[in-house]
Amino acid sequence: MLIGLLVIGGYFHVQTLQKVVQVGMLKAIGTSTSTVVISTIFQIVLINICGVALGALGTFILTLFFPVTIPLKFEGYTVMGAVVSLLAIGPLGGVVSVRTLAVVEPLTALGLSS
Amino acid sequence: MKPAIEIRDVTKIYELAGSKIKAVDGVSLTVQAGEFTALVGPSGSGKTTMLAILAGLLRPNSGQVIIDQQDLTLMTEAKRTSFRCRYLGFIFQASNLVPYLTALENVELMLKLNSKTNQANHERAKNLLIRLGLGERLHNLPGQLSGGQQQRVAIARALVHEPTVVLADEPTASLDTERAHQVVETFAALIHEQGRAGIMVTHDLRMCQYVDQIIQMTDGKITRLINNRAEITALAKGK
Ligand SMILES: Nc1ncnc2c1ncn2[C@@H]1O[C@H](COP(=O)(O)OP(=O)(O)OP(=O)(O)O)[C@@H](O)[C@H]1O
Ligand SMILES: [Mg+2]
Fold first, then answer.
1. Which candidate in A76, A81, B89, B221 could, as Cys together with B158 as Cys, close a disulfide (CB 3.0–4.6 Å)?
2. ipTM of this complex prediction, to 2 decimal places
3. Nearest residue CA, atom 17 of ligand 1?
4. pLDDT mean by block of 10 residues, chain A; 114 residues
């Protein structure tokens, strides 16, 4: 669980750092911080949902090919539990990213910092 | 007529590790609508700082910054952000455009931010790009455009929402001489036609041949103001 949080959070954070210059530019031309925050959250949630859906599908397909001798069981509840907790972890890991982008100064677009 | 931009006695002091740097020192200037001004001066003379103050990105320690008869120094951060969106257009030195939006979408972004997306403005965005020689490139991504073409997209974006003021910081720094001339010449023509107040920071005196007023800064102060055509031409040609 913790590992998942770190991996996902770390992934979003790397993506975020690459966007700092761009967000500085967007704020300079007049994009409000709330717009930046909302669209960041939206993107993180969207990517997360796609990721979890793909992962669940992949796992399901794999199980079809597992020989019955492997003692792995996928029961409704455990699967649902995993999916739900994965869905929750993503946005949690993304919180740091949202904060990073929220505080980017539009001044960076001019190569200045205060 | 009231000037589009009026700066009164603006001072900006940076404090760095205990020492104070007067980056802008008692500067006053005015720019009329339809007038294109160049801000020149040696490195560290305070040009970018001045531009940031004009843009409401940096608050001066004292003085007034009046654009369209509204004082930027009295506004809250949120108010200044929406002011920039509505009244200002920007062209930066580099990384102006959103890499995953096409040329046309980058220009229309400014309309979206202003909730001004309608058919007439869509045509306006398109026509501006055509006027800037990008008619064949409307749907290309910035990565598929040359440096000069990208700067021209940025010019279109800076003008499409009909701002009062257009600010450019070294817009030609990454271009070769020929491209730089083309870009600034069209930029100047659009400023004049559309009646915007334009300010461009530049290192390249040759680019000054397209402007109506040259303001020279040294150590945070205005040391020279040239606004007659003969002198401007002489300076642009290197004395
Ligand atoms: N964030 C900062 N903190 C402290 N001092 C700063 C800061 N930004 C700029 N300065 C100083 O303020 C002065 C003016 O800087 P500014 O960037 O406005 O100059 P410039 O005319 O744009 O220079 P250039 O032509 O090199 O871009 C310089 O002495 C610079 O070192
Ligand atoms: Mg500068």
1. B89
2. 0.85
3. B48
4. 72 78 90 86 84 80 68 65 74 77 85 72
Ligand 1 atom, smallest distance to A113 CA: 1
Cross-chain residue pair B95–A106, CB shorter than 8 Å: no
Contact A110 B84 (CB under 8 A): no
DSSP string, chain B: ---SEEEEEEEEEEEETTEEEEEEEEEEEEE-TT-EEEEE-STTSSHHHHHHHHTTSS--SEEEEEETTEEGGGS-HHHHHHHHHHHEEEE-SS--S-TTS-HHHHHHHHHHHTT--SHHHHHHHHHHHHHTT-TT-TT--GGGS-HHHHHHHHHHHHHTT--SEEEEESTTTTS-HHHHHHHHHHHHHHHHHHT-EEEEE-S-GGGGGG-SEEEEEETTEEEEEE--HHHHHHHHTT-
Query: Domain range for residue A13?
Result: 2-109
Q: What is the pLDDT of residues B209-218, one digit of tens each?
A: 999 999 999 9
CATH at B45:
3.40.50.300
Q: What is the domain count for chain A?
A: 1
> Can you give the residue range of the structural domain that contains B167?
5-236
Q: Is A30 on the interface with B (CB under 8 A)?
A: yes
Hey, are the CB atoms on B81 and A31 less than 8 Å from each other?
A: yes
